[in-house]
Amino acid sequence: MYTELVPNPKNLINTVCLDVCKILYRSVDEVDVLNVLDYSIEDLETISAKGGNPPHINIFFSSLYLKNKKGEMSDMDLVDEIVGVLYHELAHGYQYSPKGAGAYAGGTDFFGFLEGIADYVRLKAGYSSYKYRKIGGHWNDGYKTTAFFIDWLHTKDPDFVYKMNQTAKTIIPWSWDAATNKIFDQSTQSLWDEYQAYLNANK
User: Fold this and answer.
1) Is 48 helix (H, G, I), strand (E, B) or coil?
2) Does residue 168 contact residue 112 with C-beta atoms inside 8 Å?
3) Domain residue spans in the chain?
4) Whose CA is closest to 37, among 14, 68, 70, 19?
5) What is the CA 130 to chain-centroid distance, rounded?
6) φ, ψ for residue 61 (rounded to 5)?
7) Are 123 and 88 a contacting pair, CB within 8 Å?
């Protein structure tokens, strides 16, 4: 089914890799070289996941997920889902990894940074929707909650995600507070409160 939906996966991957780098970086010299990408379709319940680090990463996509969604979604929507997930996972392959920011566990600065930026890249590429944006949560919830917060922060600085990603190299130990204080001279909590006020005013 995957090959029917995506007849030329290599071209798709090359296009997404370039787009991800354009969102996260300003110069090719800043990008960690990715020489090998093993991309596989597997019969697993988890939709997708990325393993490894540059220069060699691996990504899998679930054929079982496609089978389960086949009756619920059109082929066009299924392709958009595949591409959107690929943007998210390849963002993980290219984004910097903050040090001293906790483990990969919900609620940590590390988790919020990684999953928030990856879903922001997906949103920026046009493969997510503002219909999912809602009031509440926490900036370290990751995924869409953090992605929409990052998106809003671009109203204050159009280069925010670029600068945020760069702080993973310059701030050790890394934290959201250290990053937002460096970029905005403002705490993450105060920015989050502003964002929540914006959502309430525009609901």
Assistant:
1) strand
2) no
3) 2-94, 109-201
4) 14
5) 15
6) -125, 140
7) no
Which ranges of the chain would DSSP assign to H, the alpha helix?
2-5, 9-24, 63-69, 75-94, 109-124, 143-153, 160-170, 176-184, 188-201
CA distance 93 to 149: 22
The arithmetic mean of pLDDT across residues 171-181, rounded, is: 98
DSSP, res 157: -
- In one-letter notation, the amino acid at residue 123 is L
**For 44-74, how does the pLDDT look when each residue is reduced to its tens digit (9 = 90+)?**
888 999 999 899 999 999 999 988 988 899 9
Q: In terms of DSSP H, where are the helices of 38-139? A: 63-69, 75-94, 109-124
Phi, psi of 43 (to 5 degrees): -90, 70
- The answer to whether 147 touches 122, Cβ cutoff 8 Å, is yes
Classified as helix, coil or strand, 56 is strand
> What stretch of H or E contains 187?
none
pLDDT given for residue 3 in this prediction: 87
Residue type at 66?
A: L
